[in-house]
Each structure stands twice: as C-alpha cells, then as structure tokens.
Design a protein that fits this description.
The complex is a heterodimer of chains A (182) and B (550). Chain A has 182 residues and is mainly alpha-helical. Chain A is built from 8 helices and no strands. Chain A has one domain. Chain B has 550 residues and is α/β, with parallel strands linked by helices. The chains are: A mainly alpha (182), B alpha/beta (550).
C-alpha cells in the first residue's frame, strides 16, 4: 500500500515543482565535482538527496540565516558516505526509504513535499521509533552545517558568519613574512 | 634479523619517551627511539574542525589509525565491542612523534604535595586502591623545574596560594588576558577564591628558538601552526637527534619485548614502516607508549618464564586504569564574551583541589578552551531541543555569549578498571589489541558533581544569566589523561615499577609514562609525566655501568 501511494503521489506532483526541487539539488551538488556525471551525487540517488535535504532543512531550518539545505549539508553527508562514513551507507539507504514510505502512508506525499508542520510531526515520531537513524542524521547535519567548509558543507562558511566568528585566516603566513623579532 | 645492538631502545616518542631518549643520548648512550606514528610539523595544523585530536568526527588527525589499531571495549554490563581510533570509547591519545604533546591544550601543572600522599592524607577509600606514591613532591621538584625550563612554560602562579613550593619562577610570562579572563577574575576574587594565569607549555614570548602564540582558536587538538606550543617533538627530540646518538624510527609498531632463556630483557621486536618484522637488540628497554599501550606491550611480551607478560607476576599490569572525571558548568551572559582569542583556557583556581568537606581530593577549575562551532552543538542545555529552529536560535544567540568552566576531578583508582590483551581481536600486524573494561569509582563522580556546582557558582557570580552543569557519567575514564596501569611502588607485590620506573625483577626494563602514576592528581598530567621522565632518566644514568658487557 505505501509503495503504491508513493508512485501515485509522484505522478500527481506538479511537474514544474518537482523538477525545480531536482534542479536545486543538482545545482548545489555540481559545486563539489562529478561535473559530467548524470547523477549529481556520489552515493545518494536524486530522490534520496531530496528527502535528506528536506530532513536536514527541518533540523536546521532557514530563517534570517541560511538553513541546512542551502548550506550544502547533503553534499557533506554524501561526500562522507563515500569516505569515513561508508559504514553508514545501509543505514541511510534504508532510513531514507522508510521515512518516504511513512510520509506516503500518512500524507500521500513524498517527505520533501510535506509542509513544515507535517515534516516535524513525522520527524518527532521518527525520533522515537528510529532513534539511531534520526540521531545520526541530526549529528551529520550539525557537522555539515557547523563544520569546516572543506568537507562539502557550511557553504561560504555560512554558519560561522551566522555565529559571528571570523572565517579561516591565511594559513602559513609566517613563512612569507618576517616576524618582528627576527 | 641483525640490527646493530644499541644501549637503549625507547618505545614511544611522546612526553615520557622523548625526554628519556634525549637524556640518555646526551649522556652518551646509543639510543633507538621507536614511534608507531609519523612526525608531523606545524604545517600539518590544517585547522580542520572535524578531523583533529579534540574532535575526531571524521578521524584522528595524528593517529591512531581507524582501520589498523582497533581496541575492544567492555561496558559495565559485560557487553563488548570493537572500537575504532576515532570513537569516544577508544580512550585515544595521539600516536605520533611528540605523542599527545603535539596537539594538546598544554596545561603545565605541578601536582600538589598532597597529591603524592593521598592515602595518608585521606585514609582508605572503599572500593579503591588509593595509595601513596613512593616518591614525594620534593623528590620531583627539581625535575618539574627542569621540564618547565627545557620544554618551556608560560604563566603566572603568583596568585595561587595553594601552589607547591618552587625554587624558580616560570620561564615565560602569561599570555595577555582574554575577555573571559577579565570577567571571571574579579568574580572569583569576590567569592574569596584565588584566580591566576594557567601555566601552559606554550610560548608567550620567543623561547627555545620558536615564536610566541598567535592566539588562534584552533589550539587544543591541533598541531600549532606557528610552532608556539612546546612539546617533545619540537624540543627534546630534536635535541636527542642532534647528539647523533639517537636514531628516531617512525612507523615502527612494537610487537613485543624480547627476553633470553634466563628471562633477561634483550631488546624489542617491531614492525618497521614497511611492515617488516625487525629485532632491535639493546642493553635496556624503555616502554613509553602511554598507560594503555605500555600495559598492552608488557602483557603481549609473553615467554616461557613470563607466561602472563613482563612485570606481571602479581597480575598488576594494566590495572588501576584512570584518567580524570571532567565536570563543570556553562554560563550564558547578557553580552558578548567571546573574543576569538585563543587558546581560550586562561584562568584557573586551585581552591578546590584539596580540603573539600567530606570529599577525597578534588580538582582545579579553569575556563575552557575555545569551543569550535560544531563542538558547541553539544554544549546546549537539556531544555534546548536537540534540533529545529530552537536549537539554531540557541547556537546563534549563545555561541558568543557563553563561558564554560571545567575541571579534572582526581579519580579514585579502581583495581578492576583495566587494560588486558584481548584474547581474540588482533590489530593490522596481528598483535593482540588492548581490551578495556571497568568504570569510574562512585566517589570520583561525587567529586565531579561538587566541582560542577562550584563552577556554576563562579559563573553566576560573574554575571551569567543562565547556567547549566556538565556532569560526569559512570563510564571508564582514560583518554588523553590515561594513567595508572603500571603503578610505581617499593613493594613488588603491590606495584609494577620502582620509584625510578624500573620494572621490579627486571633491572634493564623501564616504564616511563603516566602508567606509573599511583594517583593522577586533580590536574592535567603532562608536566608530571615529564618530571618523572627526567627523574627516571637521572636514576637510570646513575646506575648505568656501560653497555654490551652482559
């Protein structure tokens, strides 16, 4: 039943809106490489990336400062799933599918299409029913948002600017400048 | 395999091993210094918030390796699992030249006189192997001084009436105070406390041919970008090499200590950086791998005469594993208190190290090193949701308006908190890995809770509008402050090494690192490790009658 709903629902999605979502995801992914590849992500499918992006956006929503989606949290997680977090691949694959199915069963929509209230409701339930997966996504979202931009997230050091801390200064300057006491 | 015999082989180029290697090499002994990690430099700083020794979210910057060096951890309910080097339960300390001193926060504490005689001062504690050291503060004082001057310490303890007597001041003045320091100092004075500038193994002025701290926020957990942090990697180890008596071999994983048919130590077997098994003969062997790896090496050095490992006739090696029970509080202020001036930690009090009502020992309290943004995520109080807009609001509002105070509570040693050689799991080289089990003594948690309350009171006096505590849990404690596994003592039946770190019953085998600490003070342990290394080297050299004659 859930699967069927999922399929039905996708067909019902206004095509322009759906493509728009895909395009956003693809655009943010293009910045991290894989330029010519048909799939913009290293591990995630486009659907998974959309769902993950929507989850992360509820964990760190957009307000006067950028939220998790614009900060490239999905790019961070996708990159780590191809690196140190390879061990979490199965957890993500199954977890993201489960949440889309739950969304389809409850609201007849993909998770990425839910309203903020609906999404929060579902995530609050997930926190209780699948705590391990949920805590993992929360931790990884925080890393991608507040961590170092070199790892694919925190685009333009957006969170550091939000917190009011200076971004990384020039490294190795002392090699080129004679210190005053020398 | 026929490597040339040397006078001494030192296993581990950290705080202890680096000093021993230099002292022996300067005295004319030929020394081989084995280090399983690499030799990093200031250019390996990287300032990577997610991959460093303080926050190993994406791995350890300076080892040990996630894939090659697993450990087994047994939790109090008996459930065991294999952990990776970057997992919290691993109890990691860096594996590299300099060991923890490459990337530490660099607090340079002398233990207090009473820290060396805890049993006499407080009596027995049920469920703990609390004991006196066989040496006193006075025995170590000249060696503390030597460490402070040779490695380099800045700070100003003149405001601390509880400090142990010293003959010579610190070689460098403290760094200029931060905004947190200026807020906390008058508050402490109003409370009748005695705040002062933390002694730090960090240049505040040019010293030892290196420049002073540039006050960046990537300090604890990182190699210093301008080489202002003073560790063994940029002080004594280069000096040891300059004598031409010492050879440093990196990427060398020691497999076991070799003994002859009479049980006498003859050298070590190790895997070199190309994973070839080598045997390095030596007149004496110094084990300086840190409390977990040193114990593991002794336990893995089994032979017919030593079926349970070296120095382990009475089943003491690996026991009394301890670290510190960290506790403290965070305070939220009405105004911005963050000034982005590193290292962060700057002001401390020793008012609660001893003499606390109904408590055994205590610990220092100090303001915390700079919390990098991702680390701060975990600093939120319990009433802030873990995710969503409220958490983001908290981060945005609190990051630059909060101060954290923390302190290392002195732990009550527990006999069953221990390191063993795991019977099943082996590392990349086929060597049995360390198996960690046990937990904290309940009294250590009580002391931690007491310190947290005091930290909270200090923050409130300083004007915090909201405070919340960070309280310790019951889990095993070791980490970067790991200690206690090869206890020092005079009686071979209750200790592993003698007061000069010589393993009982082996006149040419030494353990020189925090393994020998009987108790671990209410302080960061590194300066004590260094002092003990100088003390042990002096004892060793006094007894040295030349090598090769055996």
């Amino acid at each position: 039943m859930p699967v069927r709903l999922l399929v039905t629902n996708r067909a019902k999605t206004p095509r322009r809106k759906f493509l728009g979502l895909v395009a956003t995801a693809a655009a943010s992914a293009a910045t991290i490489s894989c330029g010519g590849s048909r799939r913009p992500w290293r591990f995630l499918s486009t659907d998974e990336a959309l769902t993950l992006s929507a989850i992360s956006e509820r964990i760190i929503p957009t307000d006067q400062d950028a939220g998790a989606a614009a900060a490239g949290v999905v790019a961070y997680i996708d990159r780590q799933l191809n690196g140190p977090y390879r061990r979490f691949r199965k957890t993500y694959r199954e977890g993201l599918l489960a949440i889309d199915n739950a969304s389809a069963a409850r609201f007849s929509r993909r998770f990425a299409e839910l309203t903020a209230e609906q999404a929060d409701q579902l995530l609050n339930e997930l926190e209780g029913t699948k705590p391990r997966f949920f805590q993992l996504v929360v931790a990884h979202t925080m890393q991608g948002y507040y961590g170092d931009p070199r790892h694919g997230g925190n685009t333009d050091a957006v969170s550091w600017r939000m917190l009011g801390v200076p971004t990384v200064p020039i490294r190795g300057r002392w090699k080129y400048e004679k210190p005053p006491w020398a | 395999m026929g490597l040339r015999k040397v006078n001494a082989v030192v296993v581990g180029a950290g705080a202890g091993g680096g000093i021993v290697a230099k002292e022996l090499a300067q005295a004319g002994l030929s020394v081989v210094l084995l280090e399983r990690g690499k030799w990093y430099t200031a250019f390996d700083c990287r300032k990577d918030d997610l991959r460093n020794q303080r926050n190993s979210t994406l791995g350890n910057a300076f080892g040990p390796d996630d894939e090659r060096d697993p450990r087994v951890v047994v939790d109090p309910s008996g459930w065991e699992r294999i952990v990776r080097g970057s997992d919290g339960e691993y109890q990691n300390n860096a594996a590299c030249v300099g060991g923890g001193t490459l990337s530490y926060g660099a607090m340079a504490w002398r233990y207090m006189e009473r820290d060396f005689r805890m049993r006499s001062a407080y009596g027995a504690v049920a469920g703990s192997t609390l004991e006196d050291w066989p040496i006193s503060y006075g025995d170590l004082e000249p060696f503390y001084e030597k460490a402070e001057w040779e490695i380099g310490v800045s700070g100003d303890e003149s405001g601390n009436p509880f400090k142990s007597p010293r003959r010579k001041p610190l070689p460098m003045p403290p760094l200029a105070p931060t905004r947190e320091h200026l807020i906390l100092k008058p508050a402490a004075l109003r409370l009748g406390l005695h705040p002062f500038d933390i002694p730090m193994l960090r240049n505040s002025v040019p010293y030892g041919g290196r420049q002073p701290c540039m006050r960046c926020r990537w300090c604890v957990g990182f190699a210093c970008e301008v080489d202002a942090k003073c560790g063994t990697h940029n002080t004594v180890i280069p000096k040891a090499l300059a004598t031409r008596n010492c050879e440093l071999r990196t990427g060398a994983m020691t497999k076991g200590i070799l003994t002859d048919e009479r049980g006498r130590v003859t050298g070590v077997a190790y895997f070199d950086s190309d994973d070839r098994l080598q045997e390095q003969p030596a007149d004496l062997v110094v084990v300086s791998g840190g409390a977990i790896e040193s114990a593991r090496l002794l336990l893995n050095s089994r032979s017919r005469l030593h079926p349970n490992g070296l120095g382990n006739r009475y089943d003491l090696v690996g026991r009394n594993l301890q670290g510190h029970t960290y506790a403290g509080a965070n305070g939220l202020f009405g105004e911005v208190v963050y000034d982005d001036i590193g290292p962060g930690a700057s002001i401390a009090i020793c008012d609660y190290n001893h003499g606390n009502p109904d408590l055994v020992g205590g610990g220092l309290l100090a303001n915390e090193f700079i919390r990098l943004p991702y680390q701060f995520v975990g600093h939120a109080p319990n009433n802030v949701p873990r995710w969503g807009k409220a958490h983001k609001d908290f981060m945005r509002h609190a990051y630059r308006r909060s101060i954290a105070i923390r302190g290392p509570a002195q732990e009550m040693p527990v006999f069953d908190s221990r390191v063993q050689a795991d019977p099943v799991v082996k590392d990349y080289w086929g060597i049995p890995v360390a198996r960690l089990s046990g937990g904290r003594h309940p009294h250590s948690i009580e002391v931690g809770n007491f310190l947290a309350a005091k930290a909270e009171a200090w923050l409130q006096e300083a004007g915090a509008t909201y405070t919340w505590k960070s309280l310790p849990g019951p889990g095993l404690s070791a980490g970067q402050h790991q200690a206690g596994t090869c206890r020092m003592g005079k009686d071979p039946q209750t200790s592993v090494v003698d007061p000069y770190c010589r393993v009982h019953e082996h006149d040419n085998l030494f353990v020189v690192d925090a393994s020998v600490h009987v108790t671990n003070g209410g302080f960061n342990p590194v300066l004590t490790i260094m002092a003990i290394a100088y003390h042990a080297s002096a004892g060793l050299l006094r007894g040295w009658k030349g090598g090769g004659a055996q």
